[in-house]
Structures are given as C-alpha cells and as structure tokens.
Specification:
By secondary structure, the protein is an all-alpha fold. Helix content is about 70%, strand content about 0%. The protein has a two-stranded antiparallel ribbon.
Amino acid sequence: MITAEGYRKLIWKAKIKWLIGNIIVYSIVCIPLVPIILMYGWLIAQAFSGVCISSLIPQKLTLKNFYFLTGPIYWGGTPLYKSYWPLVRNTLLLALGTTGLVVAITSLAGYAISRFEFKGRDPLLKSVVVVHSIPGVLFLIALMYILNTIGLYGKGFLTLLSVIIIKAGLESPMYTWMLKGFFDSVPWELEWAALVDGCSRFTAWRKVVMPLIFPGIAAVSIFAFLSGWGEYLLVLTYITDRKWYTLSLALSELTYQFKHVDYGMLAAFSLLYLLPAMIFFLLTQKYLMTMRIVAYKG
C-alpha cells in the first residue's frame, strides 16, 4: 500500500519528467527560430540606428531613417519614388481586392460543394490539392499572353486589377476546399428550418449559415490578405508602370545594387512593410487555429 509520502514522491517524479520532457521538446522546436528572431531583432535595431550595425543594440538613436514618410525615396542619391504612400495604396488595393474576391468566390463555391451532389464532385475536391501543389510560376507566360491578347498588359490600373483577379483565382481553390469543412460542420436541420420558415436558399445561406462559419471566413480573409500584401512575382511580371508598383517591388528595387543600399532606410522601410502583417496575424491567430482544425477534420 502506498503511503501519503510515497504518493507525493510519485507525483513529484511525474512533474519532473513532464517538465524535462517539455524543456526538451520546446528546445528542439525553438532552435530553428533563433536565426529568425535574431534577424527581426537586427531589423528593429537598424531601423533606429544612425549608423550601420552588426549587433542587436542600436547605436546613435535616430528617426532619420523614416524620412521617406514625408518625402521622396532616394536610392544612390537619386529620387526613386516621389512618395511612399502611393506604394501603400497600391499594396492595400492588391491585398483588399484579393481578399474580397477570394471570400466571395470561396464562400459560394464551398457551400455548393458541401451541400449539392453533382457529377465529378469528389474528383474535383481531390484535384484541388494536386493543382494547388503546382508552382504558380508555371502559369506566368500563359497568363501574360492572355493579358496581352485582351489588351490589359501594361495598362496601369487595369493591369493591377488583372493581377488582383489572377491572384484571387490562384488562391481560391484551396480556400474553397478548406471552407467546405466549415460548411460540413453546420447541421442541415438549421438550414431546413430557415427554408420552412419561408427563406430562399440564398437568404438561408446569407443569414443562417454564413454567421455560423464566421471563424472560417475570418481565417480565409486573413490568409488572402497576407498573401496579397506580400505578393511579388505577379506584380514584377505584369505591372510595368511605376505608378502602380507595390511595397514588395519597391523593396526589391532598394536592394538592387549593394553599393547604393542605405541600410538604415531599408530597415525602416522593411519594418513598416512587415508591421501591418504581424499585427494583423497576432490579432487574428485564433481564427487561423480554428481553420486548421476544421480543415483537418474535413
């Protein structure tokens, strides 16, 4: 028979084993994060340093690296952009436009796949994962040919609008598959009750089903926004008018030749480019976790 003292020793040993196990697991998981944390630490320190540094401690604290917020952006002593804010506007247009289209397409398509039986439904779902694994770069030449044929290549805002449509089209299949899992989790009885009460199918979808899958819609919006905010390849390939460049393309130009790089301004520019995405992610990460769980179950 185990005495009270022996029972306490067993509990104490179990706690020690649990603590050691957690320390080992988290140590292994955190090792790959060390370079990333150091990189972000240097970025923040350099953004507020008056000289180029190679440590995580800022030197000669200053705000002069953020001069581009109120004037032109210089590269090698030459004005590269007249203002920082048109770049923000274009990036927001791309991110928000992509988000709006993706949410509209995936919420309708996901509902249709979840609720309706039609020929080829299962192969369609399986093909989404396969097609999504194909690198988008393979479609660049074909899409450029299409844009040039219909007269949208190199047309300023129309080209940016085309990039938004292309980006939304590339992102929608996978998010449709994910939202299907959320629609599957909504009981048929709730929708049938709305139909019996006189709602149309569209009204039942909009007023009954959609509020119940809000975490999924929020998660899709987050993914689409972050994807649009960081898009580089499509903008580089299709947009030729500097007036419609985005922050990602401008950031690439600022590092074109190392001898002209202003590391203080580059760090400040990168920090401001990174900050909205980080804040957006931190405020909404609970929806991302919800989406991953439901998508996995689906």
